[in-house]
Specification:
about 325 residues, single chain, OB fold (Dihydrolipoamide Acetyltransferase, E2P), transmembrane helix, 3 domains, membrane
Length: about 325
């Protein structure tokens, strides 16, 4: 009798435990299953990165994280001694090119021009003497007094002096005219080239001053003062708080209340406020982002969509990263 009573007690305890589990499951199904569907997103803002075209060392920051900035504000200064050295080289090359250009425009020195003129006058005088000598010898030859050889020698001397006079005249003309047109154009082009090099290096020096391109707030600064940064390396991020939106990941079966151009209401727990947002963007996140598989029941996978919405009216104190809640 004792064993039978013990067996009955065990069975009673088992069925009692089973009944408790069934009751808890039923209560959980009806209470939890009927709860609201929560869609959680977060506030985001447009950001732009500040970087430099030239490598250098961070010399000084004029802002700190969290500071507001206006377009045109100087944010930081980089030290770039290599660029300064290149500027010195470019300026020296420009001065040399300018000197060559001035020389080409000014032409021959006055002393050289005078020397060329004197040589021409000397040649002219020699030509006159050679011409007179030839004429005298030629008359004597015609009278039968002078031999043909003497006349030929005088004529050769006369022709040689004519060639010498023409050469001296050409030298004087060239000295008077100065550099050729092509030489002047080449010298001018060299000056423009040197000016371009100076302008290029100067633009690199301007890049050592980091300027804010738009209003915003410094959200993050990466290198410390004294650290080296490379070309194009990000130095800080600026958040444009006047261009904010909220982003949600919405399961496909909850999309019926979201349409591009439509409005939705959402709670912002951090501000204990509710805001109205206008949907501006919807895009599926791909098959890898399926939230709920239902193919085993003969239906389909529920995909996830990214939904972006902007506040209809500015929301005071809304910050990037704040949670935004929609209850369905």
């Amino acid at each position: 009798m004792a064993e039978k009573s013990q067996r009955n007690n065990i069975l009673l305890a088992f069925f009692t435990l089973l009944a408790v589990i069934v009751i808890v499951s039923v209560i959980g199904f009806f209470t939890l299953g009927k709860g609201p569907e929560i869609i959680q997103g977060q506030a985001e803002a447009t950001e732009y990165r500040v970087s430099s075209k030239v490598p250098g060392r961070i010399l000084k920051y004029f802002v700190s994280e969290g500071d507001p900035v206006k377009a045109g504000d100087t944010l930081a200064i980089l030290e770039a001694p290599d660029v300064m050295a290149k500027l010195t080289q470019a300026q020296a090359a420009e001065q040399a090119a300018q000197a060559m250009n001035e020389k080409a425009l000014r032409g021959t020195r006055s002393e050289q021009l005078q020397a060329a003129y004197e040589m021409w006058q000397k040649a002219k005088a020699g030509l006159e003497i050679a011409e007179k000598s030839y004429n005298r010898v030629n008359r004597l030859y015609e009278e039968g007094v002078m031999s043909a050889q003497k006349r030929d020698e005088a004529k050769a001397q006369y022709e040689a002096m004519k060639a010498t006079e023409r050469a001296a005249n050409a030298q004087y003309t060239m000295a008077k005219n100065g550099a050729q047109k092509e030489d002047k154009e080449m010298a001018a082009a060299q000056v423009e080239r040197a000016k371009g090099a100076v302008a290029e290096v100067s633009s690199y020096i301007n890049e050592t001053y980091l300027i804010a391109s738009a209003d915003g707030e410094v959200s993050e600064i990466f290198p410390k003062v004294g650290e080296l940064v490379g070309t194009g390396a990000p130095i800080m991020n600026i958040a444009q708080l006047n261009d904010m939106w909220v982003s949600f990941n919405v399961r496909e079966d909850l999309l019926k209340d979201f349409t591009v151009g439509g409005e939705i209401k959402a709670d912002i727990p951090a501000l204990e406020a509710t805001g109205t947002f206008k949907v501006t963007y919807m895009k599926d996140l791909g098959t890898y982002a399926a939230w709920k598989a239902t193919k085993t029941t003969g239906q389909y996978d529920l995909k996830t969509f990214e939904v972006k919405a902007k506040p209809v009216q500015p929301i005071a104190n809304l910050r990037p990263g704040m949670s935004v809640i929609i209850e369905k």
